[in-house]
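User: Some background: our group keeps a shared notebook of sequences we're curious about, and every so often someone picks one and asks for a predicted structure to add to the entry. Today it's my turn. The entry only has the sequence so far, pasted here. Could you supply the structure so I can complete it?
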Amino acid sequence: MKRIISSLFSYRLTSAADRQSRTSIDWWLFFTVLPILAVGLVTMHSFTDSASFAAHQMIWIAISVIVFFAVSRIDFQFLRSTWVSMTLFVLSVGLLGALFVLSTATRGAHNWFSFGAFSFQPSDFAKIALIIILAKYFSRRHIEIANVRHIIVSGLYTFVLFILVLLHPDLGSAMIIFFIWLGMVMTSGISKKHLLAMFVIGAVTFMLLWSFGFKEYQKDRIRTFINPLADIHGVGYNAYQSTIAVGSGGLFGKGVGYGTQSRLKFLPEYETDFIFAAFAEEWGFVGILILFTLYGILIWRIIQNAMLGATNFEVLFGAGVAIYFIVHITVNVGMNMHLLPVTGTPLPFMSYGGTHILSEFLALGILSAMRRYSRPAHKDLVKNEFIGPQ
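Assistant: Of course. Here's the predicted structure to add to the notebook entry:
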């Protein structure tokens, strides 16, 4: 009798814990994003002609937050299925291919589907699809990742998306796609000799792209990165002005709305590509430290959630999401401070643009949904994850 009561009591505690985990959201994660969104809106709104940007962005933020909470209630265990991940990958390839036919070129680039006042950029969601298919692939094979065949196969998935995005052309998104693959391969346990071989292949690929793939303006951006003062009134203008804006902020900044580089139109694209420079000019070094702290907490919470994954798929998906944000932040801040070439990469949750905000909240929503079944995996589940049929 005592054993029966003890078992029932234990079952109720376990069931209650399961119910709580199935409805839980990482509020640290969510509330860390809110101030980042807020300073992005304030930076956009602090210049008189940017008020429409802030209002338009608020609409996208509202939609994205709704999507985040809706998605966090879905059971995403179906993503472990091969046909689901492959369907998402094929859909991404199809949308990227359709851009060449159905989109209108903007400054020579076919990056968006336009729907009146709104536009949709498939490359943002292609990055999430890539994380899903790589997490699926490596979750079943990461115990044999030392086999170079798996690096090549996963690289082929990435190469298809990379080339399609590069041909639009969108060098920034192509770089993000490459670094997502590189980060997830390294997370999966690649050997040092294969890592060296990858860098050699990367160097050869870069030389081929320089000779046959890059547009002339993309080559100009790389030349400007090497020698920015060679043409500060031409292709080097953006990088030069963003560097001035960041440095002029000093310790405490010039104050909201008093950033001269942005207000006097010296700094271009200060609501999108160079919003970090505009923010740094207004908020100074102290503001940058606060912003980096918020991003640090965001990455920390993503990694913490990843480590609680029920199977290797959830762990690798969370790692991919962390890499996704780390690369975006590094590339955007790097180009604003002239540490990296200007590539048009948005700063997560700050830069103007609806598609990247929506995709970022979608990634966090899927990660939060996986918390609902984040518990030690049963040995049969682990076995199926590696060798079982899907």
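Suggested note for the entry: The beta strands are 113-115, 118-120. Residues 275-307 form the longest helix (33 residues).
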